[in-house]
Amino acid sequence: MPWPINSSSLVSGREKQPPNVILIVADDMGYGDVGCYGNQHIKTPNLDALAKKGARFTDFHSNGPLCTPTRAALLTGCYQQRVGLHIIPKDQRYAMAKAMSLEEITFAEALKSVGYSTALVGKWHLGDRPAFLPPRQGFDEYFGIPYSHDMHPWRKSFPPLPLMRGEEIVELNPDLDHLTQYCTEEAVKFISKNKDRPFLLYMPHPMPHQPVHVSERFAKRFSKEQLAAIKGEDKKSRKFLYSATIEEIDWSVGEIIKAVRALGIEESTFVAFTSDNGPAIGSAGPLRGKKRELWEGGHRVPFIAYWQEKIRPGVVIDEIAMSMDLFPTMAAMGRAPLPRKKIDGVNLLPLLCEGDKLSERTVFWRSKGKKAARKGPWKLLMQPTKKKRPTSIGLYHLNNDLSEQHNLAEIYPEKLKSLQLEFAAWEKYVDAGRAQKDEW
Length: 440
Fold this sequence. Notes:
Its EC number is 3.1.6.8. The protein is of the alpha/beta class. It has 11 helices and 16 strands. Helices cover 25% and strands 18% of the residues. The strands form 3 sheets. The chain has a 10-stranded mixed sheet with strand order 7-6-5-4-8-1-9-10-2-11. It has a 4-stranded antiparallel sheet with strand order 13-14-15-16, covered by helices on one side. It is globular.
């Protein structure tokens, strides 16, 4: 069965040099957490302005409803099952014996091969041992944390959280209230240092993953009594800070754009913003479900793209797209080679810049026994039930039922069967590809 592989649709040869690429990824931000996606309570003026000047996707999806699986797909451009990182066992959430293999080709390695300066600022979560850190995966510079900040000290079995620069520990148990600020400062320094050459900045924010943290500047709206009620790293006592955490990330986006503009490189810089999965405590807007689930709220996420004079301002795109599509998209921008074997994503540039429709494709999810497939408006959802009974099977028409309230499986048995057969074929495809070593 053929699967969508997009070998590099290059940007115009008239460009003096390929564009800079800035990819910003929030951690556990929901579809409904941004103003331009309908939130009326959280202020996100910079993201809203970015959407107004660029493109906003309404049907963009993370490859998984969890952190590591989505990041694996994002970095490699293929389904995370083919990388072997579709799930991380609880006992391996730190000191991961299971990490992204150095044999995988990342978008950083692809762009670095054509002269880009590359940096990762933020959270990695694809292996914290030195052999698997970002400097070994194509990033010239790395500043941030190797895994989530929800493990120490309130989980006593985990070691102190390291803040790292390259492969060296800068600090143990860093000040998490100012982590967004620290990452923003590092990102701006990298941009300034590389203003005269093509660069890739991948900025996966550690926030708003729980326990949420925010600097004093954004916490000052809360009363002394509210702030005094916070119990260390206790997640529940920190939930009220969530909106401020989103607003600080929005501030960070504004600082990045401000730096790009001040350096005179706005026209030659592509900026994209998304989330790694649905919300844990935030809003999925009109969608059902949240992080860890394969209802739409678990994997449909914001995606905003801006490229001055290349992407038409204010365009709203309803096409289905996924995290894994960003590797081939960035490779096309940078005129970089794609891996020859493991690319499942498609190049979004013709859609973004020319308004060309994507070829119809079926996309898939599988996470902890839950399975889903999407083709056009139709979504198949198969979920194990807690009680001793067969797997729950649902069929939904998302154009008419975005909140997935009406199961049409009994009404459209042929459509149900068709998607089930496609899912079975996909499982064979991705499972067979796990042992496949990639190459240029």
